[in-house]
Design a protein that fits this description.
Order of helices and strands: HHEEEEEEE
Keywords: Membrane, Transmembrane, Transmembrane helix
Shape: elongated
Helix content: 25-40%
CATH architecture of the largest domain: Sandwich
Strand content: 25-35%
Number of domains: 2
Distance between the termini: 99 Å
Strand order of the largest sheet: 4-3-6-7
Largest sheet: 4 strands, antiparallel
Number of helices: 2
């Protein structure tokens, strides 16, 4: 037992003469290396997005063959017994293919998504009051003027077609 205690005291004496261990992280990169890493992290996504835009082009380059009108038409009431005049947006498919995934927006702020594809030659009549912002604030017809209507849909090529009309 005396041997164990003498070994412990020798080990403690050896630890006392060594400098304390540092637990702080040590720098792994030089300042040039750090600059190069940060530049790479910033520039690679920018380069990749620029290349993507050059290869695939802007969405507005793919036209959507639809006709867009702003009108006032009779719309059936909830009970179906009568029709009331209401402000509407009319979208008509002029293509020889159906258009799925139709989204529409008024003034770039009020949106509407149409689940059913727009069939060949079909006319879609939508109440303006059905459009809403992302925070669910509804469009109030007559409160503001409609300056532009944008309709997007999926083309047969898989690209997103866009039709923008300014009023």
């Amino acid at each position: 037992m005396a041997d164990d205690s003498s070994l412990n005291s020798v080990a403690q004496d050896a630890d006392a003469h060594e400098p304390p261990r540092s637990i702080a992280p040590a720098p792994q990169l030089s300042s040039r290396g750090l600059f190069a890493a940060l530049a790479t992290v910033c520039l690679v996504p920018l380069f990749a997005l620029s290349l993507y835009a050059i290869v695939f082009g802007k969405a507005s380059e793919h036209g959507l063959p639809v006709e867009i009108l702003i009108d006032r038409r009779p719309i059936p009431t909830i009970d179906g017994s009568a029709k009331l005049m209401d402000d509407v947006v009319v979208v008509r498919n002029e293509a020889d293919f159906e258009i799925p995934n139709i989204t529409m927006n008024l003034n770039g702020q009020y949106f509407l998504y149409q689940e059913q594809p727009l069939a060949v030659g079909e006319t879609l009549v939508l109440r303006q009051a059905a459009f809403a912002t992302k925070s669910n604030q509804r469009w109030v017809p007559g409160r503001y003027a409609i300056t532009d209507v944008t309709v997007t849909g999926k083309l047969p090529s898989g690209a997103r077609g866009v039709k923008e009309v300014a009023f």
